Amino acid sequence: MNHIRQQERPELLLKAISVAYQTAFRIQNGRTMPHTTIVITPQTNIQALVAELPIAADVLTQFGLGCSGCGVSKYETLEQGAAAHGLRIDPIIAALTQARLSGFVPLIASDDKVPTPRAPRPFGMRANIKYIVPVMSGKGGVGKSLVTAMLAVGLRRKHLRVGILDADITGPSIPKLFGLRQPLLLEVDPSAPKTANGNPQPLMVPAISRSAIEIVSSNLLTDKEDTAMVWRGPIVSGVIRQFYEQVLWSDLDVLLIDLPPGTSDAPLTVLQSLSIDGVVLVTMPQALATMIVRKAANLIHQLKKPILGVVENMSYFIAPDTGARYDVFGPSYADRVSELSEAPLFARIPIDSRKAELADEGRVEEIDDAICDTLADALMASLAAHPKPQEVISLL
Ligand code: ADP
Predict the structure, then answer these.
(1) Ligand 1 centroid – CA 172 distance (Å)
(2) Higher pLDDT residue, 139 or 179?
(3) Residue 362, pLDDT score
């Protein structure tokens, strides 16, 4: 009877086959495809897309856009993410569309996964960097590197192009905070004079974090091959100069320099020759802070540059269970420090175990805290309040 009916209504038979096929397909794939309505365009927000279509995270990871899992994705569109990583948007849209239809991450041509290579520019006019801002502290362990990283994350969330030059060779922790381990790549600068032993001048390609922050650090150097030649016996000022001059930085809005702790004038002498825009000072509550700031302020004053702002880190602790506030390291000196350095207080950052945890795990970009935005906004406002001559700054 059934048989006869199906013969009479062939469209029903076709429908039944199609449903059976789709069901089998799903079982075979071992996953149920969500019914999404989200439209995949260059303007689609990354986080919204991943929330509706989880496979999008796998596709984006294939393209090296791991930022689908970090805080930046909240603010970034596919186009912005692609641009930040130097990738073409069309293959990304095509792969996402295909993944949505099939439930699989499609094969991606290796050419589409790598950023369009940047040809080294002639030595001496390599990158245009709008603002150069060293971050310093009177002593180690106050959280200078973490503050530098959070500042960078906040700036990226404003879609600014950001680099970090990790000059803290006493404890280079920036790559660790961003989960970077691969040694820096070297490229030959064809236009530069040869080195003393007749080798071509190597240039370093910065590491790129998941949210496309460019990072250079002595932690990302290998003692193999020609790198040893470049980095043998580094001293602080030499390192800063080399990281500055022999690195293929992209054009950046802000280059942050994580200085070694202390107020020795060695790094500051180097900074004299770089066109810095001012310094951010990181302190923590301690009586010594005011003394250190006086010293730092004097040194920076000699450079005729402003202190752009002060950050008091580990300022206090809020107990998560009771909400009670504790001044763990004693009373705050933030206002006094800000007054002495004639600079605004950017923020007072509490002790927060979650931040320390993410930092420890190399997931600093996942710190989804308004403090990153506060720091970035305050820095940009302070830079705007200290205008500089309208020259374009080139490296060297
Ligand atoms: P510095 O660069 O000044 O030597 P780091 O940034 O390396 O200091 O920080 C030292 C340690 O303190 C790190 O383990 C870091 O995760 C932790 N830390 C920094 N700031 C905070 C904070 N506000 N809350 C909790 N831990 C912090």
Answers:
(1) 13
(2) 179
(3) 94
